[in-house]
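Many introductory courses stop at the sequence. We go one step further.
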Amino acid sequence: MLERYRRRNPGRSVGAMLFFGFWWTFCFVLLKLIFRLRVRGMENVPDRGPVLYVLNHQSHLDPVIAGMGIYRRHTNFIAKSGLFRNPLFGAFLKGLNSVPIKQGSADMGAIRTAIEQLDAGRVLLMFPEGSRTPDGAMHTFKRGAWLVLSRAKPVVLPGAIEGAFDAWPRSRSRPFLWGKRVALRVGKPIATETLLAMGPDKGLEHIRQQIEAMRVQLAAELTADGFAVTTRPLVNTETE
């Protein structure tokens, strides 16, 4: 039984995994209470092996929301290095399996660290847009995700988040705590060989289109439930 539990995040100590599990449960309950979190597609998460978990980026809530879509595995995160400037908060993020990466630069050290996470058989979360959307639309993907998937060759797991931009837009320092709802859908895994055969541009765009289709579906569901969401078409520019 213990060995099966260790497979959720290979190489991590039991103590570290229990720490992560506690905060996963706490956040799940909190998101359910405040934002009436809806999660679809949990069954699509592979039980074992390296997984690159790729999602759109709407708000500061996204890493937590994304993690709620995976309960049989523990998620490892890619985060902007600026979030680790505060030593205490940085230690907390590392306790939640976060890996720092420099935004907008070729941080090969961080890329190597990300590859190491996957080589260890873990689930690594990444937001290829790099920054939160300023307008609710999904922007183009940066090449960091392609470097990681082309070298580590994990299964790619697409996911879509909707409602988080309206719950905590980039223009606000704090989230709305009333009248908003967030949703997450985890898609079908994509074999790396399929993406590599397409090449970088078409491969990343294929993932982006998969995520956009799920995001639009979530937006329609939330709208039908009476929750207004900011829905904009894909934008072929990078976020800043």
